[in-house]
Amino acid sequence: MTPEEVLAARDRLVPDVVAGGLRVLFCGINPGLMSAATGHHFARPGNRFWPVLHLSGFTPRQLKPAEQEELLSYGLGITNVVARASARADEISDEEFREGGRLLTAKVELLRPKWLAVVGITAYRTAFGEKKAVVGPQERTIGETRVWVLPNPSGLNAHWTAQTMAEEYARLRAVSETGGPGPEAGG
Fold this sequence. Notes:
Blueprint: H1 3-7, E1 24-28, H2 33-38, H3 49-55, E2 76-80, H4 94-111, E3 115-119, H5 121-128, E4 136-142, E5 145-150, H6 162-178
Parallel strand pairs: 1-2, 1-3, 3-5
Antiparallel strand pairs: 4-5
């Protein structure tokens, strides 16, 4: 893929990988240009989503972005807070994030996953007006769907290593497999 083809993907949409009743619906901030150019989520080389998903035990092997549909067989899916692609998340306005939060809420109400996992604390805080939110399970629910904020797997997020991210993702995996604590635990 040429740099021109990647740049031409600005503002494109990447289709969600979703189904009703998922165990975990992962929610990225917004697609990057490589994801928009390929049509695959978390496609930029250096993004740690796919390795971390495997290291945390969500998938039995490391999937490639082109294999994203396989997630559905594990009860997993992917969407984004903001649908349009950009080179960087800081190109998305606070209003776009808030509107994305409203649209995401409607999507979650329709699809009813057990868990919504937002991968990016700043995006979560802005989209849902939760300025003091921290990584981990949230008090907020959307219908019966629990919410967990995970670290952003972007290679630019130097605060988290692949291993420390995998540990946080594994906390969610363990709870999602057992029903875990929460207002609708086991139900």
